[in-house]
Structure formats: C-alpha cells, structure tokens
TrEMBL record:
Highest taxon of source: Eukaryota
Signal peptide from the UniProt entry: none
Similarity annotation: Belongs to the PRP31 family.
Pro residues bias (residue ranges): 335-349
Record field: compositional bias (Basic residues): 353-362
Keywords linked to the UniProt accession: mRNA processing, mRNA splicing, Nucleus, Ribonucleoprotein, RNA-binding, Spliceosome
Protein name: Nop domain-containing protein
Native source organism of the sequence: Juglans regia
SMART domains xrefs: NOSIC
A Gene Ontology molecular function term of the record: RNA binding
Keyword Iron applies: no
Length: 485
C-alpha cells in the first residue's frame, strides 16, 4: 500500500507531464500564428497599389459575370408570368433580384476603392480637385475630361458639373501647385476612370432590372413608395422576407446617412430619414409634417411588404388602399381647426323653482348684503371726477363717497340688527338674564360737594331714562349720606 508521500509524488509527476504537453501545444500554435502573420504580410507586400487589377477585382469575378449575364437576358426576355403560383423564395427571378441587390452594394464599394485610387494618382496634378468635386463618378468624369491639360479654359466641363463649380474649378486650376503627370501614371488613371464609369453603368442596369420586376415581386410596396425606392429598401434590408420581418422604425432609417452641415443649423435637416424621403408622397408633404409622414409611410410600407412576402395580393389592391389612406391622413393634418361655434343660451325654465324662505334666509341676506358705503363707492356721478386714495386717479376710487356735502368722507355706521342681537346674547351670557349689574360696577359716587355717598345704580339709570330733571341725590335714590366736614 502506497504511503501519503508516494501519492503526492505521483500527482506531481502527472502535473509536470501535463505542463510539458501544454507547452508543446503552445509552441505549435505560436508557430502556426507566425506562419499566418507571415502569410498576411506576404499578401500585403505582394499587393501592388500601383496596379489597378490588384486593387479592383470585382469585374473579373465569376459571380459578377454570371449575374450581369442573367440581368441582360431577363431584360431582353421580359417578365415571366408563369411563376405566379410559386412560393416567393423558390422563384428563380426573386433569387436573381436578391443577388442583384447584393451585387449593387458590392459595386458601390468597388467604385469607392477605384475613386481612392484615382484620387491618389491625380493628386500630383490637381490636389484641390478632390475637395471641390466630392461624388466619385463626377470626379472620374472630370479627371478623364481634363487629363494632363494645365489650362482649364481649353477644357469644356459643361454638362459634367454645375456652372458655379466649373467656375471655381477653373479659378483654382490657374493657381494650383500641381504638375503634369507622367504618361504611365496618366494611363493608369484614365483606365481607372473608365472602370469606374463601367461599374456605374452596370449598377444602373441592375437597378433598372430590379425596378422593372418590383411590380411582380412586391406590387403593394411598389404602389406605396414607388419601384425605385422599393428596390433600394429591399436591397438594403437583404430581400423582401427580411424587409417584412423588420420593424417600421428600422425601415424608416434604411439608407439614412448623417449629413455634414459644416456648421449650419440642424433645424431643417432630416437626420433620421432614409430612402423614404425620395418618395413622391414625402416630397409633396409640407416640411412641418414630413417627419409624421415618414413614420406613416414606414409603417404602411412594412404592412405592404408583409403582404407581398406571402403573395397575399398580387394585384396590388391592398397597396392602393394603403396609399389612399396615407393621402387622406396627410390631407386631414393640413386642414385648419374647426371654427368655434357660439354657445346657445339654455332653454328658459318656466316652472317655478323651490326656494327656501323664512327667517333664516332673511338673516343670511342681511348678513351678506352690500353696505351703503360700498354702494356709494361703486357709483360715479356724471361729469364729476371721483376722488382716489392716491390722488390723480391713482389707487382705489371712492366713487360718490363724500360728494354730497363738504367733500369729506362721512359714513354713518349704524348698528345692524344682527350686531344688536349678538350684543344682547353676549350680555345675557356674561351677566345672566335677570338684569343684574356687572360685578365691576361700584355703588360709590364721588361728587364735589357731598363727598362720598352710596347710590342705587338702577334707580339712577331709571331716572335718566325717564327724562326728569331730578337731582342726583333724591330721597328715592339715596340710601345713606356721609358728609365731610
């Protein structure tokens, strides 16, 4: 039986063996990686940028040749109606359209590569031209037209560029620092221009074929956005099935490119609009409603693409109905708001209404009734200026207050019945209902002659109320008399 130390030694031996295997595998991988890197470097070194054939290889591929041959045959033969009952994905013409869409993208990339080649070669002759003419096809046409000519007044650029740009190009060419190109470089540049123009013509032919088949492949989508836009949407999305599975918010962005405004305002620029802005409906919509119209077009185009992907309506009636719905909605948006109608008076109610009356209602009216002072302040006398709190017509006006007499504000405030009633209740609450006098009153009276005497306040009040001219110290009102010596 092995001891614990022997088992530890065995584990260490196995671990060392595994490490050796891992190290050997790492060495093999490193060797393969070095071989790959060397192969890539060798390919890069073998790639000669002076040779156009090593840069542009699309036209020599078998795929390009086959697709262009099929497109030419299909354009000569016309549309085949015998495949209407076939599933769309199994239709060979639909497969050709999908291949054409992919080929158009490859042609665009190839034109950009050739444009960079032409620009690098022609930069020695006219370095400012690439900043004046941005489009690759226009640049290739201008380069082929100018060639090695230094005096651009002898070159007719009419029809290739707008007149304003032609003038700028002519003025810039007179002050350029470029020199004529050697014959070898010039021949390569002209050859590259011819190849770019050939690719552009092939791309137009492919798009014409796709547009001509849009009425058969996607009749409802073509009815809404047009054949050209429908072909571009299908080509960018990767086919009609992929376009049908795409949400409407993504269909709206197909073909959108961020525009370089060079510091100008972005208020009128449409950043989030792609190929849909080329449709007739979008262009005929007022600028303030174009974003809403774009969202509407994207949603309806998605519905039409889903109908076309299942061959649900080959006649295109569904697309025409959707287009009419879009047109009606846009017209509805442009309608002015309805005029505000005058509100009619309610029908008079001839039946007598139940109104609460009685003492409680009279007291409530008396409590909230307008005072005589407020009535005078609310009135103005004709031809007489009113007085105000700040003078000169400023502040709160006094109305007819004080205009009856000397011009001073005289308001006689009489105690209302409600106030008298409240005062009576307060007196009864404090002194009781027996009529007893307050505990603060005193029976001591101070006079100048008699001094201090005790008197009856109730008898004194009775004498004052009766109107008699009795003396303060009558026999009925005096209880005791204390005379000072």
């Amino acid at each position: 039986m092995a001891t614990l130390a022997d088992s530890f030694l065995a584990d260490l031996d196995e671990l060392s063996d595994n490490e050796a295997v891992v190290i050997e595998e790492e060495d093999v991988d490193a060797g393969n990686m070095e071989e790959d890197v060397d192969g890539e470097m060798a390919d890069i070194e073998n790639l000669n940028y002076d040779d156009l054939d090593s840069v542009s290889k699309l036209q020599k591929t078998q795929r390009y040749v086959d697709i262009m041959q099929k497109v030419e045959d299909a354009l000569q033969k016309g549309s085949d109606i015998s495949n209407l009952g076939m599933v769309l994905e199994d239709d060979p013409e639909y497969q050709l359209i999908v291949d054409c869409n992919a080929l158009s993208v490859d042609i665009e990339n190839e034109i950009i590569i050739i444009h960079n080649f032409i620009r690098d070669k022609y930069r020695l002759k006219f370095p400012e031209l690439e900043s004046l003419v941005h489009h690759p096809i226009d640049y290739a046409r201008v380069v082929k037209k100018i060639g090695n000519e230094m005096d651009l007044t002898l070159v007719d650029l009419e029809g290739l560029l707008p007149s304003a740009i032609i003038m700028v190009v002519s003025v810039t060419a007179s002050t350029t620092s470029g020199k004529p190109l050697p014959e070898e470089i010039l021949d390569k540049t002209i050859d590259a221009c011819d190849r770019a123009l050939t690719l552009d013509a092939a791309k137009k032919k492919v798009l014409d074929f796709v547009e001509s088949r849009m009425g058969y492949i996607a009749p409802n989508l073509s009815t809404i956005v047009g054949s050209a836009v429908a072909a571009k949407l299908m080509g960018t999305a990767g086919g009609l099935a992929a376009l049908a599975k795409m949400p409407a918010c993504n269909v709206q962005l197909l073909g959108a490119k961020k525009k370089n405004l060079a510091g100008f305002s972005t208020a009128t620029s449409q950043f989030r609009v792609g190929y849909i802005e080329q449709t007739e409906i979008f262009q005929s919509t007022p600028p303030s409603l174009r974003m809403r119209a774009c969202r509407l077009l994207a949603s309806k185009s998605t519905l039409a693409a889903r109908v076309d992907s299942t061959r649900g309506d080959p006649s295109g009636n569904n697309g025409r109905a959707l287009r009419e719905e879009i047109r009606k909605k846009i017209e509805k948006w442009q309608e002015p708001p309805p005029a505000k109608q005058p509100k009619p008076l309610p029908v008079p109610d001839s039946e007598p209404k139940k109104k609460r009356g009685g003492r409680r209602l009279r007291k409530m009216k008396e409590r909230y009734a307008i005072t005589d002072m407020r009535k005078l302040a609310n009135r103005m006398q004709f031809g007489v200026p009113e007085e105000s709190s700040l003078g000169d017509g400023l502040g709160e006006g006094y109305g007819m207050l004080g205009q009856a007499g000397s011009g001073k504000l005289r308001v006689s405030v009489g105690q209302s019945k409600l106030a008298a009633k409240v005062a009576k209740k307060f007196k009864e609450k404090n002194y009781g209902s027996s009529g007893a006098s307050s505990g603060l009153t005193s029976s001591l009276a101070f006079t100048l002659v008699q001094g201090i005497e005790l008197s009856n306040p109730q008898a004194h009040a009775h004498q004052l109320g009766s109107g008699t001219q009795s003396t303060y110290f009558s026999e009925t009102g005096t209880f005791s008399k204390i005379k000072r010596t």
